[in-house]
Write a structure and sequence with these properties.
Elements: H1 3-52, H2 57-62, E1 68-70, E2 77-80, E3 85-88, H3 99-109
Antiparallel strand pairs: 1-2, 2-3
Length: 120
Amino acid sequence: MSESVLLLLILFLCAVLVLLIMYVAHLRRNIQLKQFKIQSANVKHGKSWEQFVPFMPEFERIASKDNFMFLGNPIDGIAFDEDAIKFIEFKTGTSRLSPKQQRIKKQIEEKNVEWHELRY
């Protein structure tokens, strides 16, 4: 094979490799964008449910909607019922507690809850 044909072959292979790398990068960006859109839709779905759950019959079995105070973050809310103060988190689908929510749940279950009053 002559040197000029070999050089053209190497340049062609390099061009094909560059195009392949660009195509793979494009596919990765599209996949990430689709995953972001799905995650965003899931978050919006969960946020909309948070507004309706206190008015559902299942909620009234746990706490009184009249005593529920919506927080939103890191937990959805607290019900100040006569029998107990109840920390309540709403989840939809396969969503799970975040690490911060897991720590809060553990502190509550271990009764590591305090009352502080500040006066000025």
